[in-house]
Amino acid sequence: QDNSFEQFIINYCNEKLQQIFIELTLKEEQEEYIREGIEWTHIEYFNNAIICDLIENNQTGILAMLDEECLRPGTVTDDTFLEKLNQVCATHQHFESRMSKCSRFLNDTSLPHSCFRIQHYAGKVMYQVEGFVDKNNDLLYRDLSQAMWKANHSLIKALFPEGNPAKINLKRPPTAGSQFKASVATLMKNLQTKNPNYIRCIKPNDKKAAHIFNEALVCHQIRYLGLLENVRVRRAGYAFRQPYEPCLERYKMLCKQTWPHWRGPARAGVEVLFNELGIPEDEFSFGRSKIFIRNPRTLFKLEDLRKQRLEDLATLIEKIYRGWKCRTRFLLMKKCQIVIASWYRRYA
Question: Where are the stretches annotated Actin-binding (predicted)?
Answer without folding.
Answer: 184-206
